[in-house]
Amino acid sequence: MAAGEFERPQEDFEVEIADLEQVGATPGPSKSWRSVPLPRFSPRQRRLQLTGTTAMVVLAILIILGSTAPVRELAGGALSGLTPPPLPTFVPGTDLFYIQAGPSWGHLSIDGRAVSHLPAPGVDSPLRLSRGRHTLVWRAYPFSTQRCTLTVPAHPHADTCHYEQARGPVIPAYASIIIFSESLNTLSTSERAALIQAAGAGEEAVQRDCAAW
């Protein structure tokens, strides 16, 4: 075969050079990525996003810390401090009270309500007080007003009323007697002197009457 048979016309080796920026481009106007606008958030949306992110971080920290024993004990102690203590055990009859007070012209009020009749042990039915804290006020002029507090069930370290357990065959179990007593020490100086003088005059009158007999 002659050497000239492998030669082709020169135009078969034409090479087309294209612009690299146009390779892979889709038809239509080209846009640079710099010209695409970024999404904008309103101030409220930014605050919500920040709040949500902060909450997630705090929750993750609490979960991590909660897995440790010292933190669990600390949290348990804090919660126990917020829980109110259990109420004292109520024994039937511990809400029943008699009243022993003098002089006879005195008046008693409980939580601002007047008590028309003072129940006597073994004679009357005792007073029944509701559960909780009560304020008792005894007034017998000219003696000073006496005021004390009482808790049902009893709280010896907080109660200021003087009372003792009532005893007797017809007295309900666990019933108590509240005692109000008067003395010259509860009078002012002038009232004490006037009472002593009145008592002395009364004693002299009795002695004269006895001598006349």
Detailed description of the structure:
This protein is an alpha+beta fold and 213 residues long. The protein has a domain at 96-186: Immunoglobulin-like (Sandwich). 29% of the residues lie in helices and 18% in strands. The protein has helices spanning 43-66, 69-82, 189-212; strands at residues 96-101, 107-110, 113-115, 127-128, 132-139, 146-152, 163-165, 176-180. The chain has a four-stranded mixed sheet with strand order 4-1-8-7, with no helix packed on it. Strands 3-2-5-6 form a four-stranded antiparallel sheet, with no helix packed on it. The radius of gyration is 49 Å and the shape is elongated. The termini are far apart.
